[in-house]
Each structure stands twice: as structure tokens, then as C-alpha cells.
Amino acid sequence: MDTTVTVTASASVGPDTVAVRFATPDGFTAEPGQFVKISATVEGEGYARFYTLSSPDVDEEFEVTIEVDPSEGGPFSEYLAGLSAGDEVEISGPYGDDHYEGEARVVVLAGGPGIGPAVAIGERALADGNEAAVVYRDDAPAHGARLNDLQENGASVHVVGTDETEAFDEAVEEAVTGADDEQVFVFGFAPFVAAAGDAIEAAGGDPDAAKVENFG
Predict the structure, then answer these.
(1) pTM for this one?
(2) For a Cys staple, 5 with which of 22, 45, 48, 153, CB 3.0–4.6 Å?
(3) Sequence-ordered list of residues with C-beta below 8 angstroms from that of 91, at least 6 positions apart, any chain
(4) CA distance 57 to 128
(5) Which alpha helices (H) appear in the chain, and where do they start and end?
(6) Torsion over CA: 48, 138, 192, 63 (sign)
(7) Around Cβ 175, how many Cβ atoms within 10 Å?
(8) What pLDDT is attached to residue 216?
(9) 130/49 Cα distance (integer angstroms)
(10) Do the strands 105-111 and 88-95 form a parallel or antiparallel pair, or are they unpaired?
(11) SS3 100
(12) Which letter does DSSP use for residue 34 in this model?
């Protein structure tokens, strides 16, 4: 789908991190773990970038989480972070096959901006009566309130720093149980994806069976 969407709300959800919500256009369907391409013109120059959904459903609204880093995201991430209710942007999608499909237990390993799909999948799994575990690696965590809610509602949640390799490996070992219909998800940049694969294997899991979104 290629269409125009309207911003309904925008809020800070952590250091240099903003969650932007959009009204769901007619006919748009997507699952947690999928992503959309957002396009806009900023100061006369066209930009387009992919963002993974951070909302557990798209019934009336959907959300993306934007990490604002001028050194990497340039003016576009700053532009998106500055959107307010009533603003419009172009989207296309959804894209991606590595999404939640009602698995009985989800284990989501997230690095940096991977926290968006992590909370979305965790919340959706719990809402469906399934189990969820999240292992999140970041020095400046975002979506703290939603992570707390996940934990209070029965999910296993571990937050570790980027240099805490041993703590990360131990958290993955605890989260990956090998239970029937357990699905491991990995969301993050390439170095995190590699570290997550090693941790999954060390925990007795199969990294090749994980659903992975590598942000590059």
C-alpha cells in the first residue's frame, strides 16, 4: 500500500527517542515485527526510510519509534521527531516476513532501536494469552514504561548495557527455553545481530531459526 497518513500523537519515550502514532488508513493491515517506509520532503530534499512498527496492532492507529541521531539519521529523523498531530507523511508497506504469527512463546532480543518491535511483539503475545520474554541491550534504554508493564503482566524482561556481554549472554540463556512453538526474534544493527546469534547458539537454540531484522 502507498498512501498518506496523518499523525495523531508524538511523545518522547527515552533519550533521543520519539514514538510517533498515525491514524490507520483504510485497508492497512500489519503484524508486529513488520515495517513501513516513510517518505517526506525536508528543506526541498526527498527522504525515505524504513521503520519497524512499535504498536501491538494497527486497529485504529499504528506507531513507529524513531531514534534521533543527527550523525546517522540526518535531518530526516529530526523532522520525523518534530511531527505533531495533524501533520502528514507518505508511507508504503507493510514489508517483512519475520513477524509475530501467534507463537505460544516469543523471545525478542533487541538492540538499540530494536526496542520498538520488541515491545510490540511482547504486548501482542501477552494480549493473545501467550508467553513473552524480552532481552534489550542499550546504554540509554527507551520505552521504559512499556517494559515495566510487560514485566508486571508476566513477561520476562532483561535490560543490559552494550558492554555487558556476560549479562547479555546469561539473559539470553534464561530466555531461550527450547519450549514447543517458541520463536526467537532479533532486531538490531549488524554487530548486535551477530552477538545475538552467538548467544542463541550458546543457549542451545538455533540462530538460523530466529526471525531476524538486521538494520544494517
Answers:
(1) 0.95
(2) 22
(3) 1, 2, 3, 4, 5, 22, 36, 37, 38, 39
(4) 11
(5) 70-81, 115-127, 144-152, 165-175, 190-202
(6) negative
(7) 25
(8) 87
(9) 32
(10) unpaired
(11) coil
(12) B
